[in-house]
Design goal:
Elements: H1 11-21, E1 26-30, E2 36-37, E3 52-56, E4 60-69, E5 83-90, E6 95-100, E7 109-115, E8 118-123
Parallel strand pairs: 6-8
Antiparallel strand pairs: 1-2, 1-3, 4-5, 4-7, 5-6, 7-8
Bound molecules: zinc ion.
Length: 129
C-alpha cells in the first residue's frame, strides 16, 4: 500500500491526491490539441496550451510494465517490501503508475482502486493467477 507524502503536495499534485482520496483517478484533456494528459499539469506538454480540462477515468486499463521492489523507494515504504508497482495504460489514453495488489502480468486487464494513500490496481474479474 503506497503512502503518498500529501503534506508536501501543492497545485496540480494536491488536486490529483485529493481526487484519489475521494476515490477518483483524474487526468486532463487538452482543448488545444486533444491530448490526454497525466500527471495533472498547468500547460499541455504537447502544445503548451493552458486549456486543460479535468476528467475522471473509469479506472479500467492494461498493465504496460511492472517491477517488484525489494528495497523501498522511500522511507515511508520500508515496511511494505517487497511490493510491486505497475505502469498501467488507462482506456482513456493516459499511462499512470500505482501498486499491484497481487501478482499479475504485462498485458493483464486491471481496475483502478484509488484511495487516500495512493493508487492501486486489482485484477479485472476473470484473471486467475
Ligand atoms: Zn495540447
Amino acid at each position: 500500500m503506497s503512502r503518498v507524502p500529501v503534506e508536501h503536495a501543492r497545485g496540480e499534485e494536491l488536486t490529483y491526491l485529493e481526487a484519489l482520496a475521494d476515490g477518483r483517478v483524474v487526468f486532463q484533456i487538452c482543448d488545444g490539441c486533444g491530448s490526454a494528459v497525466w500527471y495533472l499539469r498547468t500547460v499541455c506538454p504537447v502544445c503548451m496550451s493552458a486549456e486543460l480540462r479535468e476528467h475522471t477515468s473509469a479506472g479500467a486499463g492494461t498493465i504496460y510494465s511492472l517491477t517488484t521492489l525489494h528495497r523501498a523507494g522511500n522511507a515511508a515504504r520500508a515496511d511494505d517490501v517487497p511490493y510491486t508497482v505497475a505502469l498501467v495504460d488507462l482506456d482513456e489514453g493516459v499511462r499512470v503508475i500505482g501498486d499491484l495488489e497481487r501478482a499479475l502480468e504485462i498485458g493483464d486487464r486491471v481496475s483502478a482502486r484509488p484511495h487516500a494513500d495512493g493508487l492501486a490496481f486489482e485484477a479485472t474479474e476473470g484473471i486467475e493467477r
